[in-house]
Amino acid sequence: MKKFVSWLGGIAATVIAGWLVYRVTLPPAPPPPPPPEIAFEGMVIDGDRNIPVKSALVSFEVDGVSAADAYHDLTDENGSYGVKLSGLSKTSNVVLLVQAHGYTDQSKQFTSLIDDNRYDPIMTALPTPAPPTPPRGVALAPARSPTIEVRMRPQYIQKKSIQTFKIEPVQKK
After folding, report:
1. Rounded distance, CA 42 to CA 66, Å?
2. pLDDT score for 51
3. Which residue, 1, 86, 103, 157, is the most exposed by fewest CB within 10 angstroms?
4. Would you place residue 147 in the very low, low, confident or very high pLDDT band (cuts 50, 70, 90)?
């Protein structure tokens, strides 16, 4: 019986040693793929004059992310903006807010994201105050008749440098 137990122990030791060698020599698991980058880009346009708006602030608010995290871009000389956000899911809720001096703010909510989310906001100029009334006895120049001008929409030129921000969801306590 002693021989049988020692024989069985030898087999068990061989099997366990073989399993340990197999586990130790396994290649490490491949790293997880990087999170996909979701691009937001477009061109900010002056709706009255049909020209690009330079230096407009384009901000991105992401649900489930700390409000202290700022994801924003300034439009370039072509009115173009571009930001890539990594770590978002296709069902993330992103609000884009556009602000420019002399224009009303514009916003757009993206509820279903695709790889390239293009949005060209048309900005409306804030109303200008009425000119002051001239003093009595001062003649005004006759008003010119308005001319109708048809302008083509400016051509989109993609921004040269696009920033990528990694989204870190807020940890719930």
Report:
1. 25
2. 93
3. 1
4. low
* Mean pLDDT of the 19-26 span: 85
Q: What would the two tokens of residue 86 be?
A: 């990594």
Four-residue CA torsion sign, 138, 141, 142, 144:
negative
What pTM, to 2 d.p., does this model score? 0.67
Containing 17, the helix (H) or strand (E) segment is helix 2-24
Whether 60 contacts 40, CB under 8 Å: yes
Tokens for 141?
A: 């120049």
Contact in structure between 123 and 106 (CB atoms under 8 Å): yes
Q: How confident is the model at residue 171 (pLDDT cuts 50, 70, 90)?
A: low
Residues 6 or more apart whose Cβ sits within 8 Å of residue 147:
none
**85 by DSSP, 3-state: which?**
strand
